[in-house]
Amino acid sequence: MTIVAKFGGSSLANASQFEKVKNIVLSNPERKYIVPSAPGRVHKDEQKVTDLLILLYDLAVRNLNTREILLMIKDRYQAIIQDLELSIDLSQEFETIEKNLLSDLTLDYVLSRGEYLNGKLLAHYLGYEFMDPMELIYFLPDGRVDGKRTYAALDAMAKEHQKVVIPGFYGCGADGKVKTFSRGGSDITGSIIACGVSANLYENWTDVTGFLAADPRIVDKPHQINFITYPELRELSYSGASILHEEAVFPVTNKGIPIEIRNTNAPEEEGTYIIQDILDDPKEPPITGVAGRKNFSVINLQKIRMSQDLSFLRKALTVFEANDVFPEHIPSSIDSLSFIISDSYLENKRERIISELKTFCAPDEISISSGIALVTIVGRNMKNRVGISSKIFTTLADNNINIQMIVQGASEINIIIGVREEDFAPAQKVIYEAFFQKEPK
């Protein structure tokens, strides 16, 4: 059996956390490939190393003094070395970083050093080999992973090396330089490695025990999800649940490799298994979880006989494409289209987009509504149960929460409702309580 174990930033934030990780790794000899993130924070007053590296890059590109911030980063690693009484010396690594800040500066390179240095420390501490993902994970010119080259490299590595630490978050770009995934991309690295070495299990260790059915900042002590399917995980992660990067399921899906979310601080507790398929259990709640995101706007277009104009949707989408704006959802009726768009895309573009839509699409009426939040209800069992939508809508109505819009995916595993931002938390809370809270005796 082969296990790939990825440890998040909070799991490797300091020497105490390193000790926990070592105990976990060495407790099972099947944990052969270890993927570390950069040191995060355990306490609120601590800085994440990745945040410090962003500041380091910002100073470097402005030709400002980087010595102080570089020393702060070095001190984080040195504290771990001293507390664990390790013999490793990272001085040469920091000299290389300082030199590259002057000669070959890229944001991806700077950000990747957090994982790189932590990987060096962890490999030394565990007595494992260290392998740089620059030699294992390759990207195509368009930014996608070069699967053919990557999986060939990982297969060759697995045949010759076991007990290996491979830093997360980055690999080798098409230009031969460091290329990073998006923030949180160490989850993706772990998934790619699990697929490449044909692992039996991909463990993702973090600071919570499994995946929760709702945001604990909104719902008091939401229950833990014991089993969840890949599609459900994707929907919840994309919709605001931040335990696992939503892209991390793709590499393991084809091989059916299960993912288990575990808690570094409570390794004895069972986590959440993310698997390919689960049989419907009528005793289980019909929904798996609820999540949400804020800061959306809705652009509404109305035109008589719109349904007879085959080019209308194409013209509208062309305007959004030309402005690098991605519509999340497109609810429609016979004479209207609505485009739900994250405010992050619309920044400084609203007036231009409205003007171009008027010119290119010639709608009878156009309007934009802001302050919208999306709440997503996810459940593989929803399509097999009668009355789920009715229960959701009745619950919201009984709590005086107005629904701005409704979207349901073709797979029928999710229902998305738009509400005003002031109803964002109340909507999630009452929906969770309607499906999970036990009736009083």
What does this structure look like?
The protein is built from 14 helices and 19 strands. The radius of gyration is 24 Å and the shape is globular. An eight-stranded mixed sheet has the order 3-4-2-1-7-11-12-10, with helices on both faces. Strands 13, 14, 15, 16, 17, 18 and 19 form a seven-stranded antiparallel sheet that branches. Strands 5-6 form a two-stranded antiparallel ribbon. It has helices at residues 15-26, 49-61, 67-84, 91-103, 107-126, 147-160, 186-196, 230-238, 250-253, 312-322, 343-346, 350-361, 388-398, 424-436, and strands spanning 3-7, 31-36, 129-130, 164-165, 170-172, 178-180, 201-206, 211-212, 224-225, 227-229, 259-263, 272-275, 289-302, 327-329, 332-333, 336-342, 365-378, 405-408, 414-420. Helix 1 (15-26) packs across helix 3 and helix 13 crosses helix 14 (424-436). Helices cover 37% and strands 21% of the residues. The model has no long low-confidence stretch (mean pLDDT 92). It is of the alpha/beta class and 441 residues long. The relative contact order is 0.10. The two termini are 47 Å apart.
